[in-house]
Amino acid sequence: MFFGLTLFLWALPASGQDWVTAESFVIMDAKTGKILLSLNPHKLLPPASTIKIMTAMYVREKLNLDDRVPVSPYAASAPPSKIGIKPGEIYTVKELLYALLLASANDGARALAERVSGSEDAFARELTQKVREWGAYRTRLATANGLTADGQYSSAEDLALLFRRFINDPVLTEIMKTRYYEIRGDRELRNHDRFLFTTPLALGGKTGYTRASKHTYVGRFSNGTNEIIVSMMGSSKKWADLRTLIEKGFELSGTPIAKLEPKEEGLWFARKAKASPLKKGRHKRRASKATQAKVVAGSAISAPTKLVIKRKTKGGS
After folding, report:
1. Domains of the chain, with CATH numbers?
2. Which of 70, 145, 74 is nearest to 106 (CA)?
3. Does the global pTM surpass 0.70?
């Protein structure tokens, strides 16, 4: 009797804390909504910039893509991550949604919130009510961008549930999987989800980071006919944890994959060189003839050639 119990305990899967640093996670079947594996799925934690998927969904309900969005001094003063919009400038909803979901623009999030609700505070109250109507009962918003704020929290299960709703919008899905997007010909946005540059399994996701939240993430991956959603909160090793969760997710869904190589930490991204006004046309012609290969540490990725620099996200990513 005792011997049988010992074998049973030995066969139990190890706690998630034994193989990831994340405080909580959920791996969900994207098609059915079934949770395949989780760790502390209901734990309330700061979500950081994963909030921006909620902001985007609510903006889509309230505004048209070609609606104009004025930039206030408050919106422009948001701390990084930001794209440097200026007070008095006017953008379209479409432009700011790309800024929100690719470059994690805190200034863009504020501008959209003010356009929808008049103020970011009012937007956060409305959005809290809306996400609960969508079934996310363990989420409370105090901002539109996820920057640290008192009383702002979500859970890994809520993030997965909300992202499953997010991917039902073809416009948002198209934006989310875009690697680069140029606003007005002189401002290039680059997607913060590095999996889009390293594995064909990735269909897009949203990263997040503040000191209080550590690393957060929610995204979707596909392997043949199977699709999974991975949400993660409170991670100290974002990309390593996510690779492990992706592998585990496809194993549990019945389509196991080979071990993912650790490429994400070594990626270097290039900054677009700006042409002078007099040479802008000639610069574009030269660029069109350039090879479509970007220098990336540890990986060969297709993208326009540019001067290579290493860039780090400080917060709110």
Report:
1. 20-255 (3.40.710.10)
2. 145
3. yes
